[in-house]
Amino acid sequence: MRIVVGIKWVPNTQAVRIDPETGTLIRKGVPSIVNPHDLPAIEAALRLRDTVGGEVIAFAMAPPPAVKGLELALGMGVDRAILITDRVFAGADTWATSYVLGNAIVKIEREYGRVDLAVFGQETIDSSTAHIPGQVASWLNWPYAYYVRDIQVSGDSKIRIVRELEEYVEEYEVELPAVLGIAMRALKPRPVSLYNKLRAKLDKNVIITWSNSDLKLDPRCVGLKGSPTIVAKTIDMPEVPRKKEVYKPRDPRDGAKWIISKIVEDEKLRELLVKKLWGE
Amino acid sequence: MNIPSKFDTIVVGAGPAGCASAYLLAKAGFKVLVLERGRGVGSKELWGGKAYAQPLRDVWPELDKEAPIHRWVSKERFSLVWGERALTIEYKLGRKVAFTTYLTELVNWMARKAENAGALIVDEVRVEEIVVKDGKVLGVKSGDDIVYADAVIDAEGVNRLLLEKLGLVDKLSPDHVALGVKEVLSLDPKLIEERFMLNRNEGLAWFVAGDITLGLPGGGFIYTMRDSISIGLVLPIGPAARAAEKGLLKEHVSSLVEAFRLHPYFRSFWREADVIEYGGRMTIEAGLKLMPRKLYMNGLLVVGDAAGFLVNTGYTIRGVDTAVISGKLAAEALIDAFNNGGPTEENLKSYEEKVKKSYIYSELKNHSGIGDVMSDPFFFQKIPQVAVKAASKLFEADYEEPKLIRSFLNAAKEENISLLKTIYKLGRVAGKL
Question: Which among A33, A197, A202 has CB closest to B2?
Answer without folding.
Answer: A202
